[in-house]
Amino acid sequence: MSVVSHDERVSEHYLHGDLLSAIEAALCALGKTSENLTLDDLAPVDEFHIGGRLATDHLIDQLKFSKRSHLLDVGCGLGGAARHLASKHESRVTGIDLTSEYVETGNALSGWLNLDEYIRLYHGSALSMPFQDNMFDGGYMLHVGMNIENKTSLFCEIYRVLKPGSAFGVYDVMRQNDGELIYPVPWATESSNSKLSTPSQYKKALSGAGFAVSSVNNRVDFALDFFRQLRAKTQSSSDTSPLGLHILMQDNTALKMKNMIENITNGLVAPVEIIAKKV
After folding, report:
1. Contact 91, 68 (CB under 8 A)
2. Dihedral angle computed from the Cα positions of residues 118, 122, 128 and 132, in that order, rounded to the nearest 10 degrees
3. What's the rounded Cα separation, in Å, for the pair 94 and 235?
4. CA distance 101 to 143
5. Where are the alpha helices (DSSP H) in 48-129?
């Protein structure tokens, strides 16, 4: 009997099966097609992390990337953040993700928006990237480390492919206190796929890889306020938008979100930003 690896379990967790068609059908229900689609139309499904584009902008603004930089998106998912950066900052973005369906769908979406000249997403592991040393002007990862146990190997590999002096930003859900989490959550169906670390463990892994950490910012208040607004918006509307993260999380979306909010409210986890620099 074959043994299923951790990477395979993680990829299976995120697998949809017909993701591009599902997004296309949702857009059709909104009166949109691949011909008249805008970046903002995709926003509800495009960025699979707490706070979506608001959170992306908050992190990226601190990194102060130069325009037209070549950036690395670690665990790029559908490439929503990459497309946003390409559109807003004229950046060229290369992404890598473990889930092939996300990569294939993300490249198709970039083509629909005529951004494929700026963006290329690759299927692969962030622990062994097919990129040259000192290749990128900067980079970031958004809700990625929760599925990667060896943070030191992760940051050593990221350090390798960044140019000296490059800024790197992390926005991950991190462990705050001991206690048993409630599952499923958006990144894991059960505990064996969840590889949470504390902010201190992230800092140690980054420093061990050669990065200088300049700031650590707990975003728990932002997260809880974001969920309150989302809940109020949902309760005030009789219709659920056909396009949203429920396409990615599928049948148990509500349960995953409820459990994540409860885990955050109970002080067990929180989304945290870390800003670092390759020295």
Report:
1. yes
2. -40
3. 38
4. 18
5. 52-63, 80-89, 100-112
H or E segment and range at residue 119: strand 119-123
Across-strand partners of 213? 276
pLDDT (tens digit per residue) in 123-177: 999 999 999 999 999 999 999 999 999 999 999 999 999 999 999 999 999 999 9
> What is the distance between the alpha carbons of residues 75 and 79, in angstroms, rounded to a whole number?
9
Cβ pair 26, 243 in contact under 8 A: yes
CA–CA gap between residue 177 and residue 179 (Å, rounded): 6
Q: What was the pLDDT predicted at 238? A: 58
Distance, in Å, from the CA atom of 210 to the CA atom of 161, rounded to the nearest integer, reads: 12
**Are residues 215 and 275 in contact, defined by beta-carbon separation less than 8 angstroms?**
yes
User: Average pLDDT for residues 220-232, to the nearest whole number?
Assistant: 92
- Report residue 68 as tokens: 């037209």
CA of residue 247 relative to chain centroid, distance: 16
Portion of the chain with pLDDT greater than 90, in percent: 90
pLDDT of 236 over the 70 cut: no
Quickly state the pLDDT bin for 241 (edges 50, 70, 90): confident
39 with 252: CB under 8 angstroms? no
CA dist 233 → 222, 229, 262 (Å): 16, 6, 19
Residue 148 and residue 177 in contact, taking contact as beta carbons nearer than 8 Å? no
Domains and CATH numbers, the chain: 6-125+132-278 (3.40.50.150)
CA angle 127/82/77 to nearest 5° reads 50
**pTM to 2 decimals?**
0.95
Q: Is the peptide bond before 44 cis (omega within 30 degrees of 0)?
A: no
CA proximity to 268, closest of 160, 151, 148, 146: 146
CA-to-CA separations, 226 to 22, 42, 55, 141, 235, in angstroms, rounded = 26, 19, 10, 20, 14
